[in-house]
């Protein structure tokens, strides 16, 4: 009999209950007992959901108060020594201090979990880090699940992945120097789990999907030989891409089973199935854990049937990865129209799909006929729906040529014309786009959404805000102005709502980090722009000033990256459709007299595939999509782009190939070090390295910013250098914003005097 399980379930709750409980605790409105209660309730609910759906094992250990990597560190006792907490007596407050910082301690660093939008806390590796054991939360949760009569499968981040994802803070030459100690730590945990009679442990090693060098690869065999000495049976889970290169390695590991992602790594099965050991389980991830489309059950069954013949009872059925990355329950989407809704499956529905596939395999499709028919009808309807296919978009796409992705003249000639038109001073000052999103702005938007104020009232309030932002910028003496983006709730949602082909959920929250959740839109159909999206705002803002006003758009890669994307055509096709829609907007802005247009691409780098051999293909279409947006305008029109989190050194040729006239990047926290690569590469176009960190309320003085600018001048030619903050200012308050920008303008003036 095939067995059904999930690699993990969203912990945040269908109505973001964990977020609310955490934030109330952090505010001091509730105590630790109340918070623990909320956690227990959520775990109980999620286990019951899994069991009721027909999962044979429920996942225990995927719950975390803030992040599962941090929970693993708390379990091992491997919390950063600099906090001076006793790992065995770590309280919840201590745990949150690790995650969020305090007056005395800066927080642990946070970064993206592989190519997802989930952020984990980065382990800090120092020679004195301890692995002697920490808190007992996991063991308590196992007891909880058992008390509720569940068969528990414990989920752990594997030792090699944990080690790999950490950063050396001091005193170590290689992370693997810590391997013997971390293995000993895991051995202690596994021994305890064995003593408790735990039936299965899923141990996640997603680093196997990356390009692993031999040192890491060679570490697997001895590590797992040591771990399996005294442990419950281990299911080693890989996901997010194929792990073909490690087929022989995985076959020889002494684990009891392996999980493969058959959604991202659809073709890898053949490398494993042929001589899969007789005593070994193979768990296949057949339901997409990274997207929200309903599974084509017929197609899934066609794939599963021969695996079942080969493996019999040793086949396990699962989602491709943890369901952490999809919203909890489609049932709460009461406003979504029935047609779109019938095409989707969230975490709860995905459990049902896995259960149905299991029944079909174990008891025959006739036992789940209605479910198969419903899925078939939905999949067929989606394939043929006129809402998906738009003949006009297809025609435009077919006509696109390479010339459409080329500006008229080369940068050298363009910049001369642009300079003649604008006559900007040396080291021109600007900002990235957004100004403080005050509570008045948010309240007005909420009132408008509730229907308490009408459309025109709302527009009026936002226009007042634009007036204020323009006046402040003039007072501050900035050279290139922005309208401040008050009308935008979110840089992707705002555009998605105005484009055809985008859908939205009311409650489709996905955890991004800690209590923070995002509600990504989904792209279901051919994308096109029914009418101008930003032109009236930019035009209005420009009418208020003689200074140049930058138009402000979100680029195609970011529009794609921060949404759930169609699975019925390649990502690059969707990107190109978005690009063509944005190109029309760029041209309309130009026609309306907006001569500088910024196309933001903060998600450009995070779109990189996990394996570097796939990078060139991605970078080629991503650059082309950007250029498609940017190339419909005259040489005099200045195209800006902005990227944050800018570790770009390995992709600089492509950043240069985007050929934006001006790029602004985040560099201040690296003390301008991130700029060095641009210098070495001789990046040709204009560049604005951020001179102050917008993530912090601290206001640097003008000398500090001038010092950073001097460093930048060592790398970038004076004529190419712009002056701006690291990123948009929407999360900041007005007083600090004015103070910081005023210092920034003064720093630029100091520099001009040196010329
Ligand atoms: N223009 C956007 C802003 O200023 C850019 C945001 C971003 O880079 N993430 O908010
Ligand atoms: Zn940014």
UniProtKB/TrEMBL annotation:
The active site is at 695 (proton donor). Residues 427-749 form the Cobalamin-independent methionine synthase MetE C-terminal/archaeal domain. The keyword Repeat applies. One of its GO terms (molecular function) is 5-methyltetrahydropteroyltriglutamate-homocysteine S-methyltransferase activity. Gene3D superfamilies: 3.20.20.210. Catalyzes the transfer of a methyl group from 5-methyltetrahydrofolate to homocysteine resulting in methionine formation. This is 5-methyltetrahydropteroyltriglutamate--homocysteine methyltransferase. It comes from Undibacterium arcticum.
């Amino acid at each position: 009999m095939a067995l059904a399980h999930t690699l993990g379930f969203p912990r945040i709750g269908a109505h973001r209950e964990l977020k609310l409980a955490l934030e109330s605790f952090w505010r001091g409105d509730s105590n630790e007992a109340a918070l623990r209660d909320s956690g227990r309730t959520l775990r109980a609910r999620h286990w019951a959901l899994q069991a009721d759906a027909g999962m044979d094992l429920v996942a225990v250990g995927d719950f975390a108060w803030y992040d599962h990597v941090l929970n693993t560190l708390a379990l091992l006792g491997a919390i950063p020594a600099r906090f001076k907490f006793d790992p065995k007596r770590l309280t919840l407050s201590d745990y949150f201090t690790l995650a969020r910082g305090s007056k005395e301690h800066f927080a642990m660093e946070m970064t993206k979990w592989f190519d997802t939008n989930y952020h984990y806390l980065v382990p800090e590796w120092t020679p004195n880090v301890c692995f002697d054991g920490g808190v007992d939360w996991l063991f308590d949760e196992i007891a909880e699940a058992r008390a509720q009569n569940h068969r528990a499968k414990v989920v752990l981040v594997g030792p090699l992945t944990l080690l790999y994802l950490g950063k050396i803070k001091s005193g170590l030459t290689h992370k693997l120097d810590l391997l013997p100690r971390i293995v000993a730590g895991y051995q202690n945990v596994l021994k305890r789990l064995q003593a408790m009679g735990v039936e299965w442990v899923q141990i996640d090693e997603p680093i196997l999907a990356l390009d692993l060098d031999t040192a890491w690869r060679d570490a697997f065999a001895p590590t797992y030989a040591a771990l399996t000495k005294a442990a419950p049976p281990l299911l080693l889970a890989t996901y997010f891409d194929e792990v073909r290169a490690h087929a022989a390695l995985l076959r020889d590991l002494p684990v009891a089973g392996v999980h493969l992602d058959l959604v991202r790594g659809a073709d890898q099965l053949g490398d494993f199935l042929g001589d899969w050991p007789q005593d070994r389980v193979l768990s296949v991830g057949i339901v997409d854990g990274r997207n929200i489309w309903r599974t084509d059950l017929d197609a899934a069954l066609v794939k599963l049937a021969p695996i079942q013949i080969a493996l019999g009872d040793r086949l396990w059925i699962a989602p491709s990865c943890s369901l952490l990355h999809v919203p909890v329950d489609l049932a709460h989407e009461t406003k979504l129209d029935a047609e779109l809704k019938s095409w989707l499956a969230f975490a709860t529905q995905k459990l049902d799909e896995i259960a149905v596939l299991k029944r079909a395999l174990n008891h025959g499709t006739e036992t789940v006929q209605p479910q198969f028919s419903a899925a078939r009808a939905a999949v067929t309807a989606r394939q043929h729906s006129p809402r998906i296919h738009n003949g006009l978009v297809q025609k435009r796409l077919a006509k696109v040529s390479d010339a459409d992705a080329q500006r008229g003249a080369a940068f050298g000639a363009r910049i001369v014309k642009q300079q003649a038109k604008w006559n900007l001073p040396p080291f021109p000052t600007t900002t990235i786009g957004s100004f403080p999103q005050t509570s008045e702005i948010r309240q007005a938007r909420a009132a408008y959404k509730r229907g308490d104020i009408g459309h025109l009232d709302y527009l009026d309030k936002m226009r007042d805000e634009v007036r204020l932002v323009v006046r402040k910028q003039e007072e501050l003496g900035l050279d290139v102005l922005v309208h401040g983006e008050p009308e935008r709730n979110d840089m992707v949602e705002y555009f998605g709502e105005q484009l055809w082909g985008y859908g939205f959920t009311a409650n489709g929250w996905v955890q991004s980090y800690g209590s923070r959740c995002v509600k990504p839109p989904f792209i279901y159909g051919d994308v096109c722009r029914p009418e101008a999206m930003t032109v009236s705002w930019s035009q209005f803002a420009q009418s208020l000033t003689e200074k140049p006003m930058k138009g402000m758009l979100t680029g195609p890669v970011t529009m794609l990256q921060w949404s759930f994307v169609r699975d019925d055509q390649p990502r690059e096709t969707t990107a190109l459709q978005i690009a063509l829609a944005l190109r029309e907007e760029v041209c309309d802005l130009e026609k309306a007299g907006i001569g500088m247009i910024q196309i933001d691409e903060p998600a450009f780098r995070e779109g990189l595939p996990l394996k570097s051999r796939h990078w060139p293909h991605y970078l080629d279409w991503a650059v082309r999509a950007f250029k498609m947006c940017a190339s419909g305008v005259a040489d005099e029109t200045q195209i800006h782009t902005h990227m944050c989190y800018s570790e770009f050194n390995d992709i600089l040729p492509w950043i240069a190939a985007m050929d934006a006239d001006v790029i602004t990047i985040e560099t201040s926290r690296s003390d301008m070090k991130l700029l060095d690569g641009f210098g070495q590469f001789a990046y040709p176009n204009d560049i604005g390295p951020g001179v102050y960190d917008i993530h912090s309320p601290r206001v640097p003085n003008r000398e500090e910013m001038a010092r950073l600018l001097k460093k930048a001048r060592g790398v970038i030619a004076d004529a190419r250098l712009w002056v701006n903050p690291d990123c948009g200012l929407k999360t900041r308050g007005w007083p600090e914003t004015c103070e910081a920008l005023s210092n920034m303008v003064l720093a630029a003036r100091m520099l001009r005097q040196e010329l």
